[in-house]
Specification:
- The chain is mainly α.
- Helix content is about 60%, strand content about 10%.
- It has 16 helices and 9 strands.
- Helix 2 packs antiparallel against helix 3 and helix 4 packs antiparallel against helix 7.
């Protein structure tokens, strides 16, 4: 899903700006970083958030390279294959990763296990690229309208039959493995097979495509938080125990129900809070209504409003609000004396905003300049704060 979603976005939207990177990285890592400090744990131990962040950056680097040619299928395909080869080589050279982690330990006080990180990355080394290739294939199939081809129904039936066989083979292969360590050696090479087969069968016909679960869709809105919070709520004893609200092993079924309800509710609320914090950090909150200003450039004595952008599709229109229409036989009032500028108390009474925009990051309030940090400044301050915490944190 990481490879498919981000690749689809960058091919269709071509938005490679810093704001998109900041939104994704903050949304994925804010809770994990907060828990690492407050619970005195390791960031790598919450391996899901670091992994999806790692792969997002790889996908971004792959798609941004020569992005002006992303409309060419062959070029994007070559980029994906080159990225796959480069990442595979990088993860096979353990000394590079160990040198990087040693540098982070000496300069930033970050103590991560290169062995643990290499295991997590290599376990799903190529599944993300499978998602990227599927995204490219889906986009091109729609562009060239291959679904209208006379042979398309036959191809669909063949894919459905092959997917059923693949799923049966995978279940049998998995059950016959002696232990999980033996299976782990095969996982990077075959993990895309059950995933791809499930996707094909999920879209086999109209009934399957239109069926969905509202409960699972709702949980999907906070799936990241459920994965992270489980280490501190659902589980206990560093994931080696089970949290019990009611003492006694005989009450474990009731404990499971109670902890599950509270666990999902807390995850949902934390997901909402993380989203709001991300919007605040990136400045993506909904803008308030634009301020009313006094127009002194024309001697009309009328009050005008700043134009508000109204978006319709991909076209931006400027709509003049509360403008009094001029009659056909009405001439401009050039000789009318200009109305003196109103006092600030009068503007407050009209619920108008006293601020006007100036340079980026600053606002003027009646002659006083207020500093308003941007997303890069906020992230810089956060990075410095984390660096200070890391270097001063007691490490055994």
């Amino acid at each position: 899903m990481t490879g498919y979603g981000h690749t689809t976005f960058y091919i269709k939207k071509a938005d490679f700006g810093f704001s998109r990177i900041a939104q994704v990285m903050i949304r994925l890592n804010f809770l994990t970083l907060l828990l690492a400090y407050t619970m005195n744990t390791d960031y790598i131990s919450y391996y899901f958030a670091p992994l999806v962040s790692w792969w997002f950056l790889i996908i971004y680097g792959t798609m941004v390279a020569g992005s002006q040619y992303n409309d060419r299928t062959a070029f994007v395909l070559v980029k994906i294959l080159l990225s796959m080869g480069l990442v595979t080589w990088f993860m096979s050279e353990h000394w590079i990763l160990e040198a990087i982690f040693d540098f982070l330990s000496r300069t930033c006080g970050i103590h991560w296990s290169a062995r643990e990180w290499a295991f997590r990355v290599n376990l799903d080394l190529w599944i993300v690229y499978f998602g990227m290739l599927i995204a490219l294939a889906v986009i091109k199939i729609r562009e060239h309208r291959l679904t209208d081809h006379p042979q398309w129904p036959l191809a669909v039936k063949g894919a459905i039959g092959a997917s059923g066989v693949v799923l049966l083979w995978f279940f049998a292969f998995e059950l016959y493995q002696p232990d999980k360590f033996a299976y782990n050696a095969w996982h990077p090479y075959i993990s895309f097979l059950p995933v791809g087969a499930f996707v094909v069968l999920r879209n086999a016909n109209v009934i399957l495509r239109s069926a969905s679960s509202r409960a699972f869709a709702w949980i999907g809105t906070c799936s990241l938080e459920t994965f992270i919070i489980q280490y501190h709520f659902w589980l206990a004893g560093d994931t080696k125990g089970v949290l019990l609200i009611i003492p006694g092993t005989r009450w474990r079924p009731i404990n499971l129900v109670l902890t599950t309800i509270v666990f999902i509710y807390v995850s949902h609320r934390v997901a909402q809070a993380t989203g709001e914090i991300t919007n605040w950090m990136c400045g993506t909150a909904k803008p308030q209504s634009l301020p009313t200003v006094v127009d002194n450039s024309a001697n009309t004595g009328r009050r005008s409003h700043l134009p508000t952008p109204a978006v319709e599709g991909e076209t931006i229109f400027l709509v003049q609000q509360n403008a009094e229409p001029m009659k056909d036989d009405e001439a401009p009032e050039a000789e009318t004396p200009s109305r003196p500028q109103r006092r600030w108390v009068d503007r407050l009474a009209d619920s108008t905003s006293p601020s006007t925009s100036t340079a980026p990051g600053f606002r003027v309030w009646y002659g006083e300049t207020e500093w308003k940090p941007g997303v890069k400044t906020k992230l810089g301050i956060a990075a410095v704060a984390m660096w200070l915490l890391n270097v001063m944190w007691p490490y055994p």
